[in-house]
Amino acid sequence: MKKLISIVGTTGIGKTKLAIELAKYFDTEIVSCDSRQFFREMKIGTAMPTREELAQATHHFIGNLSVEDYYSIGQFEREAIAKIEELFTKNEVVIMVGGSMMYEKAVIQGLNDLPEADEENQRKLEQIFNEEGIESVQKILENLDPEYFNIVDKDNPRRLFRAIDVIWQTEKTYTENISVQLNQRNFEVIRIGISAPRETIYERINRRVDVMLENGLIDEARSLIDFRKLIALQTVGYSELFRYFDGEWSLDFAVEEIKKNSRRFAKRQLTWYRKETNIHWVNFENSVQESLSLLSNLNIKSKIN
């Protein structure tokens, strides 16, 4: 059976480096399931792999969209599975990497048979969002499904709208709706998670934000001001800087908010991954060697060797 090796872990933990090293070892290609890195205009703020990193292994679903494009998780599932099946025609192993939990789930388990978006519900939620702010939308979801609320990207209105819409339509929590696997895959999935102490994760996140700023994050965000209302830009690293540009926050405060919200997202990732029982954990300081040892024990060999 063909093998999909899925690299998971919190933001800033070193998933890109491990994915590239494994892709080189197995002479294969990488499928990204990081939903923020789909958008080509957001290179710095999403820590998109650098030109040098992209040159080391072929990547798919990196910078393939514009922020103006509509793109759903359902579209990603279909396109990612098609690409993985194509890659399996010439490779025994394919690497997948990314910290977008629901996008990884869509590929390895399939999406549940959820109803299409209800236009009336969407308009109602848009109105609440525009008139009362994202906090009111967050409160609705927290009351309807506190379990999913603990792990959802609370700063992403599209995720909030979708979950609330499904709950309203089905009269079941979103957690109940997504709990059953519907699509069996014709490949084996091996999940490798990179672990580190929480204080280390937070230190790496803080440093990563500093590096983004050194690399030009402020100018990148300023170039996207005209698109600030688009869903793609309602995300950490950009929404905070827009408030700085508006004169609402100082730059120092905006930067601290980026760091804080990035740490909050990492905490949600940890909550999600703790519930998963099929992840092989490796230490962040030795992730490549531990992963290769693990895969060797599972009798997964490089076609080069």
Automatic annotation (TrEMBL):
Q: Where does substrate bind?
A: T11, G12, I13, G14, K15, T16
Q: Where along this sequence does the record place binding of ATP?
A: G9, T10, T11, G12, I13, G14, K15, T16
Q: Which GO terms describe its molecular function?
A: ATP binding; tRNA dimethylallyltransferase activity
Classification via SUPFAM superfamilies: P-loop containing nucleoside triphosphate hydrolases (SSF52540)
Alphabetized, the UniProt keywords read:
ATP-binding, Magnesium, Nucleotide-binding, Transferase, tRNA processing
User: Which segments carry the region annotation Interaction with substrate tRNA?
Assistant: 34-37
Q: Annotated site (Interaction with substrate tRNA), which positions?
A: S100, R123
Q: InterPro entries attached here?
A: Dimethylallyltransferase, IPT, P-loop_NTPase
Q: Which cofactor does it need?
A: Mg(2+)
HAMAP family in the cross-refs: IPP_trans
Please give the family membership noted in the entry. Answer: Belongs to the IPP transferase family.
Subunit structure, per the record? Monomer.
Functional description taken from the UniProt entry: Catalyzes the transfer of a dimethylallyl group onto the adenine at position 37 in tRNAs that read codons beginning with uridine, leading to the formation of N6-(dimethylallyl)adenosine (i(6)A).
The name this protein goes by in its record: tRNA dimethylallyltransferase
Which species expresses this protein natively?
Chryseobacterium manosquense
